[in-house]
Design brief:
- The structure holds two protein chains of two kinds.
- Chain A has 16 helices and nine strands.
- In chain A, a hairpin with a 5-residue loop joins strand 5 and strand 6.
- In chain A, helix 1 crosses helix 8, helix 11 packs antiparallel against helix 12 and helix 11 packs antiparallel against helix 15.
- The two termini of chain A are 37 Å apart.
- The model of chain A has no long low-confidence stretch (mean pLDDT 95).
- Chain B is globular.
- In chain B, strand 1 and strand 2 form a beta hairpin.
- The model of chain B has no long low-confidence stretch (mean pLDDT 96).
- In chain B, helix 9 packs across helix 11.
- The longest helix of chain B has 24 residues.
- The chains are: A alpha/beta, B alpha/beta.
- Chains A and B meet through helix 11, helix 12 and helix 13 of A and helix 2 of B.
């Protein structure tokens, strides 16, 4: 068990030190350092950042792009907002380092429409960094140019999916594309593009400034570093916490002052909902999914109601392109309502569970692959309450 | 080309890098069912019916959208795959409102076939019992029933990618996602060109043509009415498909017998009117060239054909500034109507008020065309009803006739003789070929200098084709064309039409004459033709048309004796006063996005 007091993002940092260190290295060395750190994407999917960069770096193209995915939309998640508000410099520095590593000169922050009020602050930071030569032409006197612009999303949850985000930037309806080709081969404007979550980018300057080895002293063997969690629900001290990956649910609950807890939704609405028997499991890529949010429910909550809430969200937010997600989420929600009324047979519930598993493996993008998670986990973990009460 | 060794269902095969799993399977006779996939359209990968399992991957992959880059082992019917397919099919069926036996696509529906193939014998999920959406039958051409839509977006991809018209789009999200017209307005108010290509690619009955069969039957059943039908060449090369014959089987003779038995009073050949169109259009081209070259007048060159009503409507919406370039000639369908209700009525001694003219066309837009308010130059509605190939097949079946078993018979005469030139109108490049044959004969007194008179440079299925022909040893009357090279272009499909027009506008394309057909392959790929369609099917239909051309005694329009008779007895001369009155028309500038 690791102690959860070590911090990175909320620790000390000298502005520009990561970028300065990066520009002293060769791009390939920067990629290798990130690879060695074993940093994994903090947007939910957990793809190894170094591998993503490497894949984009080897592409030959006249233009490449770094996109910061600031379309935070998972219910209960607000950690990126905090970073965008309080640490925009680290995001921008992370983007510049990523740009240097893969050979991109242009960065785009895809900002969630509802976060428009943060735009001004970020723009001011961009201007300031240009003034101090941390962005713009010949950064820190080196032959590297990097510029960042902000683009606003129109408020669709699916646009957090990297291809839907890129389609949206391309001026089209925000819907996922088929992979392959991946964005690192053909992304924005069909050019190699790296899309990273806000939080992921924030770790990058630290990794380059302090080294991959230092970064790996945080977290677990397979899940290095710390992680921000937006913690809400039935807790005394909701908010954003930075903890080491590998922390158990129980430790987390203690930390935020949760009492009488019945269920914890780990990893956002599309994560999984655990009951008391799983509270000693670690939150890490090898354990419970470390998405952005933790929602705590005490014993006064009815799990079917909780589930209905999540499923309503997914029915609303599915882009409607592929069959399993468009129709499946609706059927799951309908099933939850039947359960609430006591009108769902066990046989039909079994069908719905199978449907949920079909959705997981046959949906086109992460939304449809993950949206059945709360359904499956709540039905499985709270079967007694759902079937016998 | 790099070959990659892969396994499908343990069978070892090698495929070209970039081949999709679906293509690889088909090349090896392994069936993977599809729904949103179509050979004419961009890959979508959205129905998730064609999913397969790839060894080492947790998730199933859409085989249509998975290009093979590395050696992989694919399984196409594991438990996971079958279950996913069945569930996804069940999900679609649950949302599909409408009963098979009252559907225009009964027995020719991809959803129905899939349900059969996958043993669907109950609704797994509660299925909708009431329609959710209004049916749009606002136009004469197309009917849209969103309740039968399966969200494969084949219609959208047809309208947006294949045709680049873009009337259809995705609206809404999640469960409420819908294929919608712009601002959800009825088709009749929009810049839909009624090509009907969306119909040909819809897997279900969500899109179909506006069917006037009942009115046609009513006219046949009415003893007062004299019902005359004209049949275009493309339906005759394709209608056999509706009766199980392979694509490219010409059934002109059998069709004539069927129509006669059904009670049509006269059966005429649209080729006759095609020849008439060429007489007028060829003359118009020569007139335009003379005005320009000899008299230096500001006459619009290139001249562009106007036989395809889908293309005409597109031009009216999109290039209203270029409408003077369109030939003022009506299409063969409409010319025929005007001639029947005047010349033929006089000759046969029938009151034109009692004549009902029906046109068997491969086309959805022809229904719109015959209802254009301009098309009443005979004093009556020139053509009363436009029937598609599919609708005619339905009427023949209703009459209890089985087309392939019928004896052959000829058209009625006069007005039943068409030349080979009129016939090739059915294929893309055909109007051009017919025009070149006639114009060359008129200008030089000799047949076109091509083997078998096949003007091969304008044939083929490339989107845009260009050709040139130089006039030599011209007749005295056409000395101004001596040594002049006629540059022509042919485009089929609206997307290609747009490109050709852009070439003209930019000055890059220096053409004298352009043929444009709204549909891929020309009329033989029309929106009223049997479903399914594919490049192979269209090619087969084209071959049927070209083969029939070779068998006809008359191969140019000017040599058609019945045409010569018509001018002698009635019209006088091409571009004459009566021709202008009956056979020519004008066009209407329309809005960019709306009517």
């Amino acid at each position: 068990m690791k102690n959860s007091k070590k911090r990175i993002l909320f620790g000390e940092y000298i502005v520009g030190s990561g970028l300065a260190a990066a520009l002293k290295l060769k791009p390939k060395e920067v990629v290798n350092e990130v690879k060695k750190s074993e940093l994994r994407g903090r947007g939910g999917a957990g793809f190894p950042t170094g591998l993503k960069w490497e894949s984009a770096a080897v592409q030959k193209a006249d233009q490449k792009f770094i996109i910061c995915n600031a379309d935070e939309g998972e219910p209960g998640t607000f950690k990126d907002r905090l970073l965008l508000m309080e640490h925009p410099g680290k995001i921008l520095e992370g983007m510049a380092i990523a740009g240097y590593a893969i050979g991109a000169h242009h960065g785009i922050i895809y900002l969630r429409g509802e976060y428009v009020y943060l735009k001004k602050g970020i723009e001011e930071r961009i201007d300031h960094m240009k003034a101090t030569n941390l962005l713009g032409d010949k950064i820190l006197g080196k032959r590297f140019n990097f510029d960042v612009e902000i683009r606003l999303g129109a408020g669709a949850y699916v646009c957090g999916e990297e291809f839907a985000l890129i389609e949206s930037l391309n001026g089209r309806r925000g819907e996922p594309r088929n992979k392959p080709p991946f964005p690192t081969e053909k992304g924005y404007l069909d050019k190699p593009t790296v899309v990273q979550n806000v939080e992921t980018l924030c770790y990058v300057p630290y990794i380059i400034a302090n080294g991959a080895e230092w970064f790996r002293t945080h977290g677990t063997m397979k899940s290095t570093g710390t992680k921000l969690f937006s913690i809400s629900g039935d807790v005394e001290n909701p908010g954003v916490y930075e903890v080491e990956l590998g922390i158990t649910v129980r430790e987390l609950l203690e930390m935020v002052g949760a009492k009488d807890t019945k269920a914890v939704q780990v990893g956002g609405a599309s994560g999984i909902c655990v009951s008391e028997k799983d509270f000693d499991k670690p939150i890490a890529f090898e354990g419970l999914p470390p998405g952005g949010s933790i929602i705590v429910f005490n014993h006064s909550r009815k799990m079917l109601h909780v589930l209905e809430n999540f499923m309503e969200f997914f029915v609303e937010e599915s882009c409607g392109q592929c069959t399993p997600c468009r129709e499946g989420n609706y059927r799951l929600l309908e099933g939850v309502r039947l359960l609430k009324k006591g009108d769902c047979t066990v046989a039909y519930l079994r069908d719905l569970m199978e449907l949920a598993r079909v959705m997981q493996i046959s949906s086109k993008c992460g939304l449809g692959q993950m949206s059945p998670n709360p359904f499956i986990s709540i039905i499985e973990n709270f079967k007694d309450e759902i079937l016998y009460s | 080309m790099e070959l990659i060794p892969i396994k499908i269902n343990n069978k070892e095969i090698k495929v070209k890098k970039g081949t999709t799993i679906l293509e690889a399977a088909r090349q090896n006779d392994i069936r993977i069912p599809t729904l949103c996939n179509h050979p004419d359209l961009e890959v979508a990968g959205i129905c998730r019916i064609c999913v397969v399992e790839i060894e080492g991957m947790r998730n199933l992959q859409a085989s249509c959208a998975y290009p093979i880059e590395h050696p992989i082992s694919v399984k196409t019917y594991t438990e996971k795959v079958r279950k996913a397919r069945r569930f996804n099919l069940d999900l679609i069926l649950a949302q599909h409102y409408g009963e098979c036996y009252s559907c225009v696509r009964n027995n020719n529906c991809e959803l129905q076939s899939l349900a059969k193939e996958y043993g669907v014998n109950f609704y797994r999920f509660p299925h909708i019992k009431e329609p959710r959406y209004e049916i749009d039958d606002s136009s004469f051409a197309l009917v849209r029933d969103p309740n039968k839509c399966v969200h494969c977006k084949r219609c959208i991809r047809t309208c947006l990618d294949l045709q680049e018209v873009g009337v259809l789009e995705t609206a809404g999200r999640g469960y409420n996602v819908q294929v919608q017209t712009m601002l959800d307005r009825p088709l009749v108010e929009l810049n839909c060109v009624y090509c009907g290509q969306c119909i040909n690619r819809c897997p279900t009955g969500a899109l179909h043509a506006n069917d006037p069969s009942d009115w046609v039957w009513e006219a046949i059943d009415d003893p007062e009415k004299f019902v005359i039908i004209q049949t275009a060449p493309s339906p005759r090369a394709a209608i056999g498909e509706e009766f199980g014959l392979p694509a490219g089987t010409s059934v002109t003779g059998q069709l004539n017998t069927a129509l006669r038995r059904m009670g049509f009073d006269r059966i005429f050949d649209t080729n006759f009117a095609a020849d008439l169109t060429i007489m007028e259009e060829g003359s118009e081209l020569l007139w335009r060239l003379e005005q320009k070259l000899v008299h230096g007048k500001d006459i619009k060159i290139p001249m562009i054909t106007s036989c395809s009503p889908g293309w005409v409507k597109f031009a009216e919406h999109t290039f209203p500034e270029l409408l003077d370039h369109l030939s003022s000639c009506k299409s063969p369908q409409q010319m025929f109507g005007a001639v029947i209700k005047t010349y033929y009525a006089q000759m046969a001694g029938i009151d034109p008020a009692n004549i009902v003219t029906v046109a068997l066309m491969p086309c959805a837009a022809k229904k719109f065309e015959c209802n254009r308010p301009e098309m009443v130059d005979s004093g009556y509605k020139d053509i009363d009803y436009g029937l598609t190939t599919r609708e005619m097949a339905g009427m023949i079946r209703e009459a209890g006739l089985w087309l392939p078993e019928l004896p052959k018979s000829d058209f009625d005469h006069p007005l039943g003789l068409g030349s080979g030139a009129g016939l090739v109108f059915g294929a893309t490049g055909g109007v051009m070929e017919a025009a070149i044959r006639s114009v060359h004969l008129i200008v030089t007194g000799r047949q076109v200098p091509f083997k078998n008179m096949d003007v091969t440079p304008v044939r083929g299925m490339e989107g845009i084709r260009e050709a040139s022909i130089t006039f030599e040893n011209t007749l005295e009357r056409y000395k101004f064309l001596e040594g002049v090279t006629l540059n022509v272009a042919v485009a089929h499909g609206i997307k290609n039409a747009r490109q050709v027009i852009e070439r003209v506008k930019s000055g890059e394309g220096n053409y004298h004459f352009i043929e444009i057909m709204a549909c891929p392959g020309g009329c033989l790929g029309g929106g009223g033709q049997p479903i399914p369609t594919s490049p192979e099917i269209r090619e087969a239909r084209a071959q049927a048309i070209y083969a029939e051309d070779h068998m006809l005694p008359v191969r140019t329009s000017v040599e058609n004796p019945e045409i010569q008779q018509l001018y002698k007895d009635f019209l006088g001369e091409p571009l004459g006063h009566l021709s202008h009155q009956l056979l020519h028309t004008h066009y209407t500038p329309r809005g960019r996005y709306t009517m």
